[in-house]
């Protein structure tokens, strides 16, 4: 997208802005929220794997066996052949987009830039799950430190940046099939779940009664499938709203607030992250130097006392 362009992207990464310059052991977890956030990162990865597995199974069912993988078929408002290709093409595009994101993430990781890693959704996850001597956890702590103590405008810029990164997935890879899902859920609701009653309480009771009846049909399979469809639709709605909000932030605020010298939202975010990184590294280095000086003075004092004792 135009607002993501940056003339700094191909610039040489400074040594002090690389992972090799940072001592990961200097970063510690200082609150209980950081481990929770790290656990959520692993959960989101497992959830993504499950979603792509279901997508693979659905695509095979549609393209090879020419049928749906569940008892619930998409809305009759769209012919089967049309809905089949909508789902299939969207699933294929999802895998193509995932492959592109992995190629981009690997290129960023080879460059070794901390800021570029922080500014890529997939690279953050790949860096944070590195195995061996707590490398992933330590790098996640670096990302957590970069997120702290930012100004409101910087949070808005980062939110918009991450939201814009997902525009292909939200609009092209998921949008059409989520529209089919929405129409399917609406059809099922009108046919089987729509509540009827003279008051709100009776309508609510009737609604839950019909859900119970639907759940008991076919061994809870339909209810589980509908729940999955509803869950993915809700996730997509939030992603779409985030993208819309990011666009509004860009049009009404960021496009005017970002200096032209940054070349766009990407350059602005990278400059701010590098500035924050340099500040963190300086503090860590100065602290390490002070600790070394303290240890040196302590050793000299101990040696002096030992010499006095020997002379006495």
UniProtKB/TrEMBL annotation:
Top-rank taxon: Eukaryota
Pfam family, any one: KCH
InterPro entries: Kch1/2 (IPR031606)
Species the sequence originates in: Phaeoacremonium minimum (strain UCR-PA7) (Esca disease fungus)
GO CC, alphabetical: plasma membrane
Keyword S-adenosyl-L-methionine annotated: no
Keyword Transmembrane: yes
Keyword field: Coiled coil, Membrane, Transmembrane, Transmembrane helix
Coiled coil: 280-310
A Gene Ontology molecular function term of the record: potassium ion transmembrane transporter activity
Transmembrane segments: 40-65, 85-103, 224-253
Protein name: Putative pheromone-regulated membrane protein
């Amino acid at each position: 997208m135009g607002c993501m362009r940056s003339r700094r992207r191909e610039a040489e990464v400074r040594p002090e802005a690389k992972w090799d310059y940072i001592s990961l052991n200097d970063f510690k977890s200082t609150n209980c929220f950081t481990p929770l956030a790290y656990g959520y990162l692993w959960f989101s990865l497992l959830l993504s794997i499950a979603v792509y597995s279901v997508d693979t199974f659905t695509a095979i069912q549609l393209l090879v066996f020419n049928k749906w993988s569940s008892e619930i078929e998409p809305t009759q408002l769209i012919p089967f052949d049309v809905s089949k290709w909508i789902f299939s093409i969207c699933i294929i595009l999802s895998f193509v987009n995932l492959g592109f994101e992995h190629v981009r993430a690997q290129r960023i990781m080879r460059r070794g830039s901390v800021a570029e890693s922080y500014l890529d959704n997939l690279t953050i996850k790949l860096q944070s799950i590195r195995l061996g001597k707590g490398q992933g956890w330590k790098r996640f702590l670096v990302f957590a430190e970069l997120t702290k103590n930012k100004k409101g405008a910087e949070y808005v810029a980062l939110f918009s940046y991450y939201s814009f990164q997902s525009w292909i997935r939200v609009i092209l890879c998921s949008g059409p099939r989520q529209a089919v899902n929405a129409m399917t859920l609406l059809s099922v609701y009108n046919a089987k779940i729509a509540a009827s009653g003279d008051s709100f309480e009776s309508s609510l009771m009737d609604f839950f009664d019909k859900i119970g009846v639907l759940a008991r049909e076919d061994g809870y399979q339909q209810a589980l499938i509908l729940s999955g469809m509803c869950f993915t639709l809700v996730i997509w709605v939030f992603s779409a709203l985030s993208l819309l909000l990011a666009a509004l932030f860009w049009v009404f605020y960021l496009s005017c607030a970002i200096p032209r010298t940054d070349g766009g939202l990407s350059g602005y975010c990278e400059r701010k992250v590098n500035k924050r990184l340099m500040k963190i590294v300086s503090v860590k280095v100065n602290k390490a130097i002070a600790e070394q000086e303290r240890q040196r003075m302590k050793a000299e004092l101990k040696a002096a006392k030992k010499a006095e004792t020997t002379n006495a």
